[in-house]
Write a structure and sequence with these properties.
heterodimer; A: mainly alpha; ABC transporter involved in vitamin B12 uptake, BtuC; two-stranded antiparallel sheet; 6 strands; 65% helix; 5% strand; globular; B: alpha/beta; Rossmann fold; 2 domains; 6-stranded mixed beta sheet; binds adenosine-5'-triphosphate; binds magnesium ion
């Protein structure tokens, strides 16, 4: 189906079901219960899951397939956001033109940066991309202020000269982003007993785009182009002597992944129309590297899992403060309670990075294939158990 | 004039004159062996033919065109495929994927952003790859990870990857080194068969004299970077200069 092999179709359908049902799946705990703080089913966070999923899917096309490690991909994300906000300011609050411009501009940007950076390989390539991204970051704060609005960040104002659409709504506020009239921030709540599920238009738009992006990445992985990219990672010498020029392939992968990043940036601005230079900072570039490796570089679904895991920790773990911890351990005697809180404290709240760091180290050391490899191992172990069970079951009657 | 003409080629590495005054002409549809003691410059000469090294002096003409200054992928597209002394394959990929890459290169050229049809939907190329694997007795290994194969299998795979491109000139750098006797004999048979069936010119570097005398129509003996003699195999065997070069170097 969809020009995919059966295994890939199954994966795509599974991902589609999970993303469509995310408002339920991510809200398993009833409101008001002690565990409700682990719910991630609110629009803002769900949007971040899928947007960073797109970012990581694109990054994986470059890093996972060709092995070229870019440390500057956040620059394309930032460029995408700025482009989108400018489109909102100048043209229309419809997100389609904004997203299209984000993808085009970040693609052009990636073409220039990629062309220069790909003259080197390995660590030098990484350093070049990092340098370009930091340069973009610094420029956004300084000489490019007319375009980026410097430290304040680029925002919508009441006197934007919007060609298609009004500068301000009738009641004098800034118009909101929409998809042909469907407002991105619109949402409706579904209350089922003690649960409340929120369905946000913005999330579903992002989710559908993520599914399209994911589908395209599967096609790329399975295509001759994808095979060439894997050949680049495997053995460039053999590739050269086989009559292939690795350069244009690598550049194409770089540009495609830059466009994915631009798409993510454009969507981010579509959900919340502002853009700041901090989106281009090297920490943001590093984050997508972590996501991809954590989930499993070079696998189809890994980057999405990695993005989800990191965004979940960033938003949920970071909210656990000492009060919450005291609540958890309140059943213990006072001394032990304080002791437990003191032990757990460094790993949660502002210390969530420590947890992330430890998990990352464990994964890289014991599961070089990331969370996907972890899943595969669990799956294999289960299957083996089942096989043994059925073998036992089938041999028993014979005895 | 042969299909490959090497004229007055010299190459220097620092203080070492690896090649000097190499003249060599390989006739179309023949098998030309280059033999010589270790360090004679055989691999260096091969590297000068495929764009890995650029000779300091002289010229290399293939099929009427100069190869000098062209990059390896351009030279391959001219019709020269090469097997390395240590196998160069795509170790992260499966055997079948290894076979598909040279086929795409042959059909689509050095670079083409293919559509997004899947690799497996290229039925014609897939069956060509399978046929070639069958010819080298590796069809049963087509789903194997090529990194996990024996050295002999890697060599056979590399050879299959070159042959499937149907090159005009096939360059082999010690293709049977590290192979078991049986595999060596299979390789000889395969190359003989290829020679008969196709219009192909082979230049082979080989230490195994059994292989050389089974295949070669013409032999050049290289010693210390210069061709010593070039003659038909039956004249090479007892040639005093050859004995001298080998005995003088190796023993
Ligand atoms: N890239 C290089 N830089 C410096 N010296 C080199 C280089 N390549 C080869 N040499 C030297 O040139 C000489 C010829 O080497 P070459 O590999 O061509 O020999 P060969 O005939 O292929 O030997 P073997 O039978 O061992 O493969 C050797 O002394 C080698 O050390
Ligand atoms: Mg050699």
């Amino acid at each position: 189906m969809f020009g995919l092999e059966k295994k890939d179709t199954t994966l795509l359908i599974l991902v589609a079901i999970l993303t469509m049902a995310a408002p339920f799946i991510l809200n398993p705990f009833p409101e008001g219960s002690g565990l409700a703080q682990f719910n991630a089913g609110y629009p803002d966070l769900m949007q971040r899951f899928v947007i960073f999923g797109i970012f990581a899917i694109g990054f994986n096309i470059l890093f996972g397939l060709t092995g070229y490690l870019s440390f500057g991909h956040a620059a394309f994300l930032g460029v995408g956001s700025y482009s989108a906000v400018w489109m909102f300011k100048l043209l229309s609050m419809n997100i389609i033109p904004a997203i299209i411009l984000s993808v085009i501009i970040s693609g052009l940007f990636a073409l220039v940066i990629g062309y220069v950076s790909l003259r080197r390989t390995g660590i030098y390539f990484s350093i070049l991309t990092l340098a370009f991204a930091q340069m973009s970051f610094a420029l956004a704060y300084s000489v490019l202020t007319p375009i980026t609005n410097g430290e304040t960040g680029l925002q919508l104002t009441l006197d934007d000269p919007r060609i298609l659409g009004a500068s301000a709504t009738a009641d004098g506020s800034i118009p909101v982003t929409n998809l042909f009239g469907l407002e991105m921030r619109s949402a409706f709540d579904l209350a089922v007993g003690p649960w409340t599920f929120t369905f946000s238009a913005g999330y579903y738009v992002c989710a559908v785009i993520m599914l399209l992006a994911f589908y395209l990445s599967i096609r790329i992985f399975r295509s001759p182009f994808g095979l060439m990219l894997r050949a680049i990672k495997s053995n460039q010498t053999r590739m050269n002597y086989t009559g292939l020029n690795p350069k244009p392939y690598t550049l194409a992968a770089f540009v495609i992944s830059g466009m994915y990043a631009g798409l993510a940036g454009g969507l981010m601005a579509s959900m919340d129309p502002l853009a700041g230079a901090e989106r281009m900072q090297w920490t943001a570039s590093g984050e997508v590297v972590l996501m991809t490796i954590l989930g499993g570089a070079g696998t189809l679904i890994g980057p999405v899992l990695g993005a989800g895991a990191i965004k979940y920790m960033e938003n949920i773990f970071s909210k656990i403060n000492d009060n919450v911890l005291h609540g958890w351990f309140s059943f213990m005697p006072d001394g032990i309670e304080n002791f437990m809180v003191a032990i757990v404290h460094p790993f949660v709240g502002k210390g969530w990075h420590l947890t992330l760091g430890i998990i990352f180290m464990l994964v890289v050391t014991f599961l070089p294939g990331g969370l996907v490899e972890g899943g595969q191992r669990v799956g294999k172990a289960l299957r083996r158990n089942k096989d043994e069970d059925s073998k036992n079951a089938s041999t028993e009657p014979a005895e | 004039m042969g299909i490959l003409d090497v004229k007055d080629v010299g190459k220097r590495f620092g203080g070492l004159q690896a090649l000097s005054d190499v003249n060599l002409s390989v006739k179309e549809n023949t098998c030309h062996a280059i033999i010589g003691p270790n360090g004679a410059g055989k691999s260096t000469l091969l590297n000068c033919l495929v764009g890995k090294l650029i000779p300091d002096t002289g010229s290399v003409m293939f099929d009427g065109n100069s190869v000098l200054g062209r990059s390896p992928h351009e030279i391959n597209q001219m019709g020269i495929s090469r097997v390395f002394q240590t196998p160069e394959i795509f170790a992260d990929l499966t055997v079948m994927e290894n076979m598909m890459i040279p086929l795409f290169a042959k059909r689509d050229g050095a670079y083409r952003l293919h559509g997004i049809e899947s690799v497996s939907s290229e039925r014609e190329l897939v069956s060509m790859a399978e046929q070639m694997l069958e010819d080298v007795n590796m069809l049963d290994k087509r789903h194997m990870h090529s990194a996990s194969m024996s050295r002999g299998d890697k060599r056979r795979l590399e050879m299959a990857m070159c042959l499937v491109q149907n090159p005009k000139l096939l360059l082999l750098d010690e293709p049977t080194a590290g192979m078991a006797r049986a595999d060596t004999n299979n390789t000889i048979d395969l190359l003989k068969e290829i020679k008969e069936k196709r219009d192909i010119t082979i230049a082979i570097i080989e230490h195994d004299m059994h292989v050389v005398f089974s295949l070669a129509d013409r032999i050049t003996v290289l010693a210390q970077g210069t061709p010593l003699v070039e003659d038909a195999p039956e004249n090479i065997k007892g040639h005093p200069k050859v004995q001298e070069a080998y005995l003088g170097e190796a023993h």
